[in-house]
Amino acid sequence: MPAQHDIAAETELWDTFAASAFKDDAEPGFGWTQYAGHGPGPELLGDPRSVLEIGCGTGRALAHLAERGTTARGVDLSPVMVKKTTTKWAGTGAEFVCSEVLEYLSEHEDAYDAVYSIFGAAWFTDPSRLFPLVRRRLHPGGVFVFSQPPAIPGAYGPQGMYKGGFAGKAMFTYRYSYRPAVWERLLTRAGFATADAQILDAPHPDHIGTLLVRAVAP
Questions:
Q1: Distances (CA, A) of 208 to 146, 150, 202, 204
Q2: Which strands make up the sheet holding 138-148, listed edge to edge?
């Protein structure tokens, strides 16, 4: 059974995250992994004229693409974060929208050459609901790319997690974890022509790798 989300509680959680994660001195930058300067870059998106980032967070990746001339839009649940990113990256041309991702993809008809998520909404949203909506928002041959930590062995499906420590107000979210082959199967069932999921090793032995998934629309 899919995890049930309380949107108001989720919004409060991500507003709290925005207050701690956003850095006023940050520069545009794009990377798929949790390690600076590690792994591939935006070339996994191809050469898109338009992109949508779902769960765009601090906006650094979107600003990077916008500065390169891409029509770049990001969706994030936190109004605090969207206000910060809109102000910070105003000169880049990137656009930031405050919305719940499933609602946004359902209600808006715009299509994109690429949709992507970097430790973002693809990690926190039920893939059985998200993937078909992403597929509908892609142009023919468009790509969907996302990255996040790989599943802990034996812990698959929605994983509940408290945020901000284990004392104080109960703030939690759900994250979705599967083996690479299962991610591929979920994507092809959602209508993607091809899907490739792999775990990229960390740059240091025994450190956490990165799940990197790329799917192509027919």
A1: 17, 8, 6, 9
A2: 95-98, 71-76, 50-54, 112-118, 138-148, 210-216, 194-200
| pLDDT tens track for 80-104 | 999 999 999 999 999 999 999 999 9
Contact 61, 82 (CB under 8 A): no
The rounded distance, in Å, linking the Cα atoms of 218 and 214 is 13
Long-range contacts of 9-13 (CB under 8 A, 24+ apart): 9/171, 9/172, 10/77, 10/100, 10/173, 11/77, 11/78, 11/79, 12/171, 13/163, 13/171, 13/172, 13/173
CA distance 73 to 61: 11
The residue type of 208 is I
Which residues have CB under 8 Å from 149's CB, separation 6+?
34, 119, 208, 209, 210, 211
- 211 vs 173 pLDDT, higher one: 211
Q: pLDDT tens digits, residue range 186-206? A: 999 999 999 999 999 999 999
**39-80 pLDDT, tens digit each:** 999 999 999 999 999 999 999 999 999 999 999 999 999 999
Phi/psi at 182 (5° precision):
-70, -40
Would you give the DSSP letter of residue 202? P
CB count within 10 Å of CB 173 equals 20
Whether 167 has a pLDDT exceeding 80, the answer reads no
State the pTM of this model.
0.90
